[in-house]
C-alpha cells in the first residue's frame, strides 16, 4: 500500500514561537495512522527547532522549502542540502511554482537541486504543474511531462524511490480554486503512467503522488477518495491548527 502524506508548507510565515506552537499543537492533537506521514516545511531558521519537536515520533518529519543548486561555497545567503540534513531536515521541496516563477528556477537548476538533495540522503518533494494559460490550451500533460523528464526522470530507480511528486496546478495555489477531483485524478494517473513507461509498473505503483492547490478540510475528502491521490501538499490551510488536523483526519 502506498504511503500517504500530508505536508504543511508554511512558506514565509510564522515567527519561531508561532511555528513551535503550531507544530506542537498539531502533533498533540492529530492522530495519523501507521500508513500516514506528516511533514512540516517551516522557514529555514526553524527547521532545527521543529526537528526537535518531531524527534522520536515516526509519524512526523521536517523538511526545507528549497535548497541551493550548488553543494557549498561562496554563495551568500544560500542554504545547502547538507546544512538541511545537519539540522535534522529529512526532506526538501524542489520545483515549487513560486520558486519557478518568482526566482526563475529552470528545469535544469531543479535537476541539480534534486541530485544534491538525494546525495545527502534526503527525500525530495518534487512539484510540477501547469499555469492557467497552459490548461486553457489543453497542454497540461505535455507541460508536466517536460518538467518530470527534465528534472527527475534521469534518476536511476533506486534514487527515484526517494521522490514524492506533488502535482500542483499553478492556478490552484493560494487562489481558493481547487482542481476538481476528476481533473486531479486524471493528471495523477497520467503521471503514474509516465513513471511506468520510464521505469516499471511496480515503481509506478509505489511512488506517492500528492495534490496541492487550495486544499481544505472541505475539499480534501473528495480529492483523497481518488485512487491515484496519495495525500496533499497544503499551504494556507496548514497555518491553521484545527483545519490542518481535519485534513489529516480526512485522509485516514
Ligand atoms: C502550496 O503552496 O504548495 C499550496 C498548495 O498552497 P495553498 O494550499 O495555499 O494553495
Structure description:
By secondary structure, the chain is an alpha/beta fold. The protein has one domain (4-250): Aldolase class I (TIM Barrel). It is built from 12 helices and 8 strands. Strands 1-2-3-4-5-6-7-8 form an 8-stranded parallel β-barrel, surrounded by 5 helices. Helix 11 (220-224) links the parallel strand 7 (209-212) and strand 8. It is globular. Phosphoenolpyruvate binds at residues 9, 168, 173-174, 212-215, 233-237.
Write the topology of this structure.
Elements (H helix, E strand, L loop, with lengths): L3 E6 L6 H14 L6 E6 L5 H8 L5 E5 L16 H6 L4 E4 L2 H6 L4 H13 L3 E6 L3 H5 L3 H12 L5 H4 L2 E5 L13 H18 L2 H6 L2 E4 L7 H5 L6 E4 L6 H10 L2
Parallel strand pairs: 1-2, 1-8, 2-3, 3-4, 4-5, 5-6, 6-7, 7-8
Helix pairs in contact: 1-2, 1-12, 7-9
The site of phosphoenolpyruvate has 13 residues, from strand 8.
Q: Round the Cα radius of gyration to an integer and report it.
A: 17 Å
Strand tally: 8
> Per the principal axes of the C-alpha atoms, what is the gross shape?
globular
Number of domains: 1
A few lines on this structure:
By secondary structure, this protein is an alpha/beta fold.
Feature tags:
TIM Barrel; alpha/beta; 8 strands; binds phosphoenolpyruvate
Amino acid at each position: 500500500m502506498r504511503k500517504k502524506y500530508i505536508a504543511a508548507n508554511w512558506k514565509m510565515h510564522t515567527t519561531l514561537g508561532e511555528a513551535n506552537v503550531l507544530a506542537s499543537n498539531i502533533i498533540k492533537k492529530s492522530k495519523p495512522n501507521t500508513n500516514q506521514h506528516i511533514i512540516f516545511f517551516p522557514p529555514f531558521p526553524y527547521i532545527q527547532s521543529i526537528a526537535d519537536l518531531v524527534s522520536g515520533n515516526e509519524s512526523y518529519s521536517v523538511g526545507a522549502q528549497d535548497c541551493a543548486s550548488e553543494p557549498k561555497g561562496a554563495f551568500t545567503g544560500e542554504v545547502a542540502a547538507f546544512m538541511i540534513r545537519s539540522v535534522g531536515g529529512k526532506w526538501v521541496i524542489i520545483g515549487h511554482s513560486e520558486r519557478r516563477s518568482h526566482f526563475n528556477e529552470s528545469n535544469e537548476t531543479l535537476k541539480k537541486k534534486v541530485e544534491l538533495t538525494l546525495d545527502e540522503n534526503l527525500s525530495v518533494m518534487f512539484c510540477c504543474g501547469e499555469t492557467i494559460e497552459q490548461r486553457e490550451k489543453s497542454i497540461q500533460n505535455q507541460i508536466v511531462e517536460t518538467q518530470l523528464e527534465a528534472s527527475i526522470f534521469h534518476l536511476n530507480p533506486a534514487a527515484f524511490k526517494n521522490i514524492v511528486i506533488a502535482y500542483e496546478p499553478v492556478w490552484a495555489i493560494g487562489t481558493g480554486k481547487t482542481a476538481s477531483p476528476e481533473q486531479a485524478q486524471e493528471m495523477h494517473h497520467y503521471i503514474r503512467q509516465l513513471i511506468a513507461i520510464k521505469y516499471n509498473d511496480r515503481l509506478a505503483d509505489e511512488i506517492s503522488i500528492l495534490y496541492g492547490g487550495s486544499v481544505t478540510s472541505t475539499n480534501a475528502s473528495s480529492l483523497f477518495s481518488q485512487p491515484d491521490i496519495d495525500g496533499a501538499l497544503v499551504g494556507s490551510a496548514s497555518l491553521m491548527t484545527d483545519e490542518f488536523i481535519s485534513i489529516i483526519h480526512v485522509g485516514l
